[in-house]
Automatic annotation (TrEMBL), chains A, B, C, D:
Protein name: Inositol 2-dehydrogenase
Gene3D superfamilies assigned: Dihydrodipicolinate Reductase, domain 2, NAD(P)-binding Rossmann-like Domain
Enzyme class, spelled out: oxidoreductase
GO molecular function terms noted in the UniProt entry: inositol 2-dehydrogenase (NAD+) activity; nucleotide binding
Entry superkingdom: Bacteria
Keywords for this protein: Oxidoreductase
Record-stated family: Belongs to the Gfo/Idh/MocA family.
Pfam families: GFO_IDH_MocA, GFO_IDH_MocA_C3
EC number from the UniProt entry: 1.1.1.18
GFO/IDH/MocA-like oxidoreductase domain mapped to chain residues: 133-259
Record-annotated Gfo/Idh/MocA-like oxidoreductase N-terminal domain positions: 4-117
Coiled coil: none
Organism: Vagococcus allomyrinae
Length: 340, 340, 340, 340
């Protein structure tokens, strides 16, 4: 079989991560076309990655006869439409989370996906592909922890990004911290537990940046969730970690527990200096999840090449967004929200 | 000033910890009398600790003319009455948590305490006196973490105790896991945050020992709490930790975070063996909190000698029990409970 | 420029690691030919990696008109001759450590390398390319540790390999543990310190496998070294680590110290089980140094493409072998050995 | 039996540690008398610890009829004479390491000790009494590590003390870093291995404080040692650790290895701040070994009360000093030194 020819839309930081992997690190894929509203981004990426076709318009890219699949890394508000257009153009689709902003549009997009059963659709929850998460998943599935009772998920961005987020939030809507960030943790809870989430209560507090209260955004939020088998999930989501990019997951079972990323160490170096004994930490998602982004895209390639179901489906995306929305509603009402 | 003469009631594991400290490790205190319903315990303790007076009856001990203070380490159901009688006998009182089982009897006991303002009353929340907790408290109070936003507390007993707990629970009432165990964590939340707790939602699951469902007991519970300044608290309480005695507290603030007992290491030894790189862990509360129990009792002595307020008051005990009761009610109703 | 066309000799575990990287993970390189004395290895690798040319004879491979460079991963005894032949055939050469077994043949090989200045020669000390070692090197070079005073290097293979080594050693000569294993650590000492090693004393002990005494092999050895600036190096080399593959390097300077691989963690997972708090560990060199092997080969490609000096020269190989030989001599005589 | 009545000489930092333990924390001992050349120290300690008798002259203290035992914490140069005088006065003796400065005077002191077999003599190697070291010793003696092959010992003082040491060294003689500091590590090697040390090579380097070269003192030294069963010991001794008081011991055996104090954590707190993930560290010997000093002195009391041999004998002191002297000689000659 010849290589999978990719058209990619969205050339922000994550877009460039995917573009670089496709162009340089996955022999089975060729980065044939890139699309962005920003000509400078196109020019830079084309030079760097030696891409043949560049497009300012997404539908123009879809009209190219040289593509097998589309990788969507554009702002979330474009996802649903871009998924639908790509599927209708007969192409496979990889889309970054979330599928869409509202449950209504996601439902509609799932219907479109279902009417194209011979094209692959895969959603980008990269954490599942991280070596440490894979290792943990194997232990859980092998019963090493016994039956799970509690799952704790932290996802906290580095405080170095707070200033720019506050500016962004003054004029834009992130969708709320639960949909914007905790959605990864919600997916992990579903993936590890193989349960659905029934009830949530969410809280939030702005302490360092009280101005976020005005725009209904959160610096830090928490949620507690009851799962269908009565397991419990605890979630901390935030944007203000002084030590870096803190993604941590804990699984407590009847026979043992484990933590992924409790530190979260940048590498195998330990410093002994005036501060004490120090483990340097990961500072951002490309650093922490570089291997996961690559493995994820390889999994998409494998699904196409071997005509297998993709590991992350539209339903996974729908459920995660549904629960994130419930968290947001719970935070706004300060009451428990049931998920049907 | 001569030494403080102590009468101690209750010679279980914790009772013997306090008795040994008073008899052997605190020069300012003498263990003059001990009381237990169990003659064997009395005989053993008397021989071991060289105690002059032994009593099968608590009121007989109170009648001794040789006492300055009473240390109560009896089952919780006796606490309120024993506190009252000791105070009425003119003695200072140190009482293990909780003050009592019901809010009504605790309220009444507080009234008695208030009518004896010249006698010291101190409640035993030993964790506050642990060196690591003291170190953390100083950092928090010095502002090193900025403003607190999230507090996470774990208190999980070793699974080695599960079998005997299941037997105990078949015939007895622990008061529920929140009142029995999480009360320490609740006190820590109040101590670190200097806030009151307004709303709680609590969950629970029995997985390894489903028979606990029958007796309304829990193997593992969680709770989320909203504090008066909108800070958030997350709590895991359990009886089934394979690795030992897991008491951990995390404080997340706007400038940094810290964890106490994340491991929780038995000592400074690291093993490199077929399992990997292993830190042996504490297995029980006397091992983990030996230093704290001693420092706590010394603090009681200092309060008496220097006529200072005790560091932990009856109100601290009342509030902790009130919140534990709210957790239990929330778990039973699966609804948020407000604390007035 | 078109891709670098590689012929690779030696298809053992490390040979397959390099072959796979060249074939699958380095777009700038093509694996055109493979050579092995073992037809089964050739057949397997050809199928797995889609290689066009296979050779049972090294000189036949050199005669292929389709090659730009040779990668040598054969047994050490063949290295010198294979380097010389490849250079004389006009090809670039990457060779796994060591260059050769005796200082005499290495000296002669260096002379051949010097007479082909327009062909690249690079020796494989992969540890230098590991992300953690790179991070440490940058800190050292930036002066973060001040002036180095002590370097400690551990390289201990997992005990899982002991049985097969004992069988191997009964009939073969590894060259001694210092030349076979510690040579990596010796290179690191030179790399970090930028000093030469002047004096060494080496010791050894066989405890679990005393039969190794008969064949002049070692289960565990140590060495202390004095560097040209009077810095000190301590080295432990072994074959019997119960917990896995233990490669650790410590750098002590006047302003701080650091350790690489003190644990050495397999990933970011921490287990809490009956053993205590456990970090699973790397079990072998492909697991621990997978990223380093890839980066190393990419560096070789870059040297060719951009016509730059290779990062590891023949002199680096000569010096490391010289010091390893001094260690071996010191162990055998139990006296300090000077290196001129 | 009535309490052991102690006279203590030397009221520096370590002297006050012992004095406080005897006066406040060991019920079986009474601190009856203290002796110092410094009247201010005497006055302060008397007030603080409520001591009856104070002496500016050691022989005057020995003349007191109220003493059972002498605790010697004076400068090392006085030890031999003070031991001898105390024994001749019929008293038990606890003496801080070392017994004396020269092997000749130590030999003579051992002869005096031997002529007083009914009086206890104990040397102060407190590390043996540290809980972590005790735990490790039990594992070793139970065979958990198999047969020992390598012992690594670090003892590095915090750099906060460097400035004052450089001033001290300008006018005084510490006895050399091996006798002054590494003697503790040498004792640990003998204790864990139950072997004698046969051959040593020692090195040293002054980097931050080259002026120490002028006074024959060392900022950092290393030594390698061959033990009687051919086990190997590696030693780093220093005065310049940026992160605090670094005492670490590693034991490598055929079945596993362990490290004591690899971090060396101040307590159970982990910080997550701008530096990364930080374990605060012990800053000095009273902080790190507070428990060990107390347990050590209790062991001395038990030896007297139960008429048992003391756990650390004069021979232990002689051997440690002998090896430290060999290290110093080896450093000065840059040759291996044999110990007979």
């Amino acid at each position: 079989m010849s290589n999978i020819r990719i058209g990619l839309v969205g050339l922000g930081r994550l877009g460039m991560t995917h573009a670089t992997n496709i162009a340089k690190n996955i022999p089975e894929m060729d980065l044939v076309a890139i699309c962005s509203l920003n000509q400078d981004e196109l020019t830079t990426a084309q030079a760097l990655l030696d891409v043949k076709e560049t497009y300012l318009d997404y539908q123009d890219m879809l009209a190219s006869p040289n593509l097998d699949a589309i990788v969507i890394v554009s702002p979330s508000g474009f996802h649903c439409q871009q998924i639908q257009l790509a599927l209708e153009a007969g192409l496979h689709v990889f889309c970054e989370k979330p599928i869409g902003l509202s449950l209504a549009e996601i439902d509609q997009t799932l219907a479109v996906i279902n009417t194209h059963p011979h094209q692959k659709f895969m959603l980008g929850f990269m954490r599942r592909f991280d070596d440490s998460y894979q290792y943990a998943k194997q232990l859980v599935d092998a019963g090493e922890l016994g039956e799970l009772t509690v799952i704790r998920c932290y996802g906290i961005d580095p405080s170095s990004g707070m200033e720019s987020f506050v500016k962004f939030a003054a004029n834009s809507n992130s969708g709320g911290i639960f949909a914007d960030m905790a959605i990864h943790d919600i997916d992990l809870i579903r993936w590890f537990s193989q349960q659905e989430i029934n009830r949530v209560w969410a809280l939030g507090k702005n302490a360092a940046y009280p101005e976020l209260d005005q725009v209904n955004e959160l610096e830090t939020g928490t949620a507690m969730m009851q799962l269908s088998d009565h397991s419990m999930a605890l979630l901390v989501t935030g944007r203000n970690a002084a030590h870096g990019y803190h993604v941590e997951t804990e699984l407590i079972g009847t026979k043992g527990m484990l933590r992924i990323g409790a530190a979260p160490e940048k590498n195998l170096v330990t410093l002994y200096n005036e501060q004490g004994v120090v483990r340097p930490t990961s500072q951002n998602f490309p650093e922490r999840f570089g291997q996961a982004f690559l493995t994820e895209m390889k999994a998409f390639a494998t699904s196409i090449i071997e005509d297998l179901p993709t590991p992350i489906s539209g339903v996974d995306g729908l459920q995660a967004t549904k629960i994130a929305a419930a968290c947001q509603q719970s935070f706004e009402t300060n009451e428990i929200v049931e998920i049907d």
